[in-house]
Amino acid sequence: MSQANTHINLDQLNNTRPTHVLIIGSGLAGMLSALNLSKFGLKVVIACKGKLIESNTAWAQGGLAAVLSNNVFDSPDRHLEDTLNAGAGLVDRTTARDILQDGKVLIEQLNEFGIQFDITKDGGFDLAREGGHSQARVLHCKDTTGKSIAETLANRVQADPNISVIENLWAEELIIKNGKCVGAYFRKGSDSSAILASYVILATGGLGQAFKRTTNPWTATGDGIAIAYRAGAKLADMEFVQFHPTALSLAGAPAALITEAVRGAGAIMLDGNGERFMNRFHKDGELATRDVVARAINQVMQEQNLDSVFLDLRPIGKDKLESHFPNVLNLCKHYGIDPLTQPIPIAPAAHYFMGGILATSDGKTSIDNLYAIGECATTGLHGANRLASNSLLEAGVMACRAAKCLASEAVTELPQVTLETKPAKAVEMINDTELLRNELYKRAGLLRNEEGLKQLLQTLSQNTVLGPADTEEKMVAANLLTVAKLITKAALIRQESRGAHYRLDYPAQNDLRFRNRIWLSQNGYGFIREPKPSKSQPAATAKLAAARR
């Protein structure tokens, strides 16, 4: 990866002038929004917790779902119907339509930046089909799509004179003045500094590391969601955590993702007796939505007292496996499994967070001048269960829309803010992060009930300490505790089963009471109902305004 003069270190940070836009986090959402903002002549600072390419984007294998005009068998309406079906009644139809229709434009822009999706021999895009999709519409770069996107965009970002990048900087607290977000405090080791900005964009990704088994990288500890909540922002859909059905399950190995695209290519799942089992759970078999497949695997594991079931890639064929899924083959062989000759042991793992900071499709939140895009935001696109490969689509479209929205605000004035000495605030934090991860996975994972959720809150309370989060380790402990408690509280409120949220004590879907999204803030919680927008107020803005009340 090329290195440009856009990187600044902590010593330089204290002399950094206010910027037009501060982006916290990188990934597709953060980097693409920065590049688009730069096109409008705005100065941007990207502050990221690790390296620029260390994000959930870089770990995404499957691809990006989008309907292109040359696919005569598909349409945005069909993509919308698949998204609505996967979301189990909670998808915001207007928002989903807006985001899905922008997929074609996103692909064109990514191509302009140099991202080369796989093509067929006749020159068209090589489209894959994944669970919940009625058509093949997933664009990919073999089975390392996210890595290709992240590396290509990182090179562009580092060569852009309008973008400064600060790596290994941990977001500590948002700065709110007169109801507006004007920057953030950051920490590196024992040092704390501030970056001021006219606007702040959170692009911090998800929270998979709150669970014992996860496909997410070390950075995914819910930081943006937690600091936004503590700043007073409204969150929504916190009960909906998607577990990927097929994560590697081997002693001593991480819960590495085995892309859903292998099932679209013909892979099948087998129980402990070597028998195929998905057809007894759903008519779509292995290509049912992720919530259905993950719970089916869990049930078979319980029935047969197994630590895993098995994913058999051999029906795909040797040639296609080697040409389309080299990353999966290399990963498995590294841990002593040869998918060309034997099935892969797999079990569900926390993968994607449908909830987060309540935002419109262009990233606006309940706090003025604070935007949230990508996985840390929740727009209503995913509802109760994300359709496969809609995540990169949403992150990219939101990045473009947020940049366009900010450019229309004519951001030319830099913030004029006098900062007092930052007080050493006391925050709640868990004293044992491994205990939290184990308990959250056990009691608020695939299956939940009131007794277990209340026991979880009690366990968290008994292991909570109060003090300044003045180290990076303590910041993680505080952020994990915040998101764990919010997931648990939302799961208690939703007394039904829907999508990725399954209550053993309320196994049915209750549309009469709960066909509404749940928002939470420091002031309480409520339900997001479908308001009727006026001619002067777009639907998405009307819904955010309704949730603010």
Short note summarizing the structure:
The chain contains 18 helices and 20 strands.
Describe this structure in words.
- Among the domains are: 244-349, Flavocytochrome C3, Chain A, domain 1 (Alpha-Beta Complex), CATH 3.90.700.10; 426-508, Fumarate reductase/succinate dehydrogenase flavoprotein-like, C-terminal domain (Methane Monooxygenase Hydroxylase, Chain G, domain 1), CATH 1.20.58.
- β1, α2 (27-39) and β2 (44-47) form a beta-alpha-beta unit.
- It has 549 residues and is an alpha/beta fold.
- The chain has helices at 10-13, 27-39, 56-59, 76-86, 93-101, 103-112, 145-158, 223-230, 261-264, 290-303, 318-324, 326-334, 390-408, 433-443, 450-462, 472-493, 511-514, 539-548; strands at residues 19-24, 44-47, 64-65, 138-139, 163-166, 170-177, 180-188, 191-202, 235-236, 241-248, 268-270, 309-312, 344-353, 356-358, 370-372, 377-378, 426-430, 464-468, 517-521, 524-528.
- The model is unreliable at 1-6, 531-538 and 544-549 (pLDDT under 50).
- The strands form 5 sheets. Strands 1, 2, 5, 6, 7, 8 and 15 form a 7-stranded mixed beta sheet that branches. Strands 16-14-9-19-20 form a 5-stranded mixed beta sheet, sandwiched between helices.
- It is globular.
- The protein contains 18 helices and 20 strands.
Tally of DSSP helical segments: 18
CATH topology grouping of the domain at 244-349? Flavocytochrome C3, Chain A, domain 1
What name goes with the CATH superfamily of the domain at 244-349? Succinate dehydrogenase/fumarate reductase flavoprotein, catalytic domain
CATH architecture verdict of the domain at 244-349: Alpha-Beta Complex
Taken as a percent bin, the fraction of beta residues is: 15-25%
- Count every beta strand, where a strand is a DSSP E run of 2 or more residues: 20
Low-confidence stretches: 1-6, 531-538, 544-549
C-alpha geometry = globular
Helix content: 25-40%
Distance between the termini: 47 Å
Q: Label the structural class.
A: alpha/beta
The CATH class of the domain at 244-349, by name, is Alpha Beta
Alpha carbon gyration radius: 22 Å
Mean pLDDT: 90
The major pleated sheet works out as: 7 strands, mixed
